Amino acid sequence: MIEHKPTGPIDQITYAFSRITIWGAAFIVAIMFYEVVMRYVFFQPTLWVNEMSLWAGGMIYATAGLYAMQQRSHIRIYVIYDMAPQWLRQVFDVISMLCTSIFVFAVLWGGFGEAVAKFKRWEAFGTAWDPPIPATDKPLLLITLFFLVLQGISNLIRDWPSVAWVRKLFDVVAGVTVIVLAVWALPMLFPPAEAEFAVPTQWRICIAVLLLAAIFYAVKGLWKDFNVTPEPYSENHDPSAEFDLPDSVMAQRPDQTNAQR
Length: 261
Description:
It is a single chain. The protein is mainly alpha-helical. Residues 236-240 and 253-261 have low confidence and may be disordered. The radius of gyration is 22 Å and the shape is globular. It has 8 helices and no strands.
């Protein structure tokens, strides 16, 4: 698969944080290998490996869909879509985005209070190792869904592609929204001492760093791509077209004719 580079503030944020989670699978394999060695070689099984793998796997599962949306690699059924003219495809895309937005709004509306409560009391898993899986995964899921809607709208605007001022307006609104929400959330991580807030200090610092990174990449997306007109994206494009392949290589491809070259 050819990885599509980010264009715009939302793409920049999605792409940047995908570089972190992309190593999650390797991390899970490594700790599972450690568990096997400790259990069957040294006869000292761990308490934490199984739950750590569940914890990391949940985070990867939640954020993988966002990256798939940015890369346009999510599952779609094209039987009717490919037969439709371009204007009808645009209608289908808009309807799909509306359905996604309604679903995400309902989940955010219904789950926001519970997610905040779990996070503030740093709710744990209730096992021997007792990791704070509910306190972290529930807020992460809602945050991911919020970015999923922004990413879907960004894709819709760029793939068809819209006039420049529409794209620029969305970039400004989306980028500023992310920056404002991150700035609003930063002081909430460090409330007064008398406030009921059970989140450990090291976790507050890590989350603050992530919020600052989101601000940085939102600004970077606005600065870097604000005046760039993206190329129309095609679901069924030829990946080799993205490279300057020599004629000797192209001649060996049976699906390429002289007319295509």
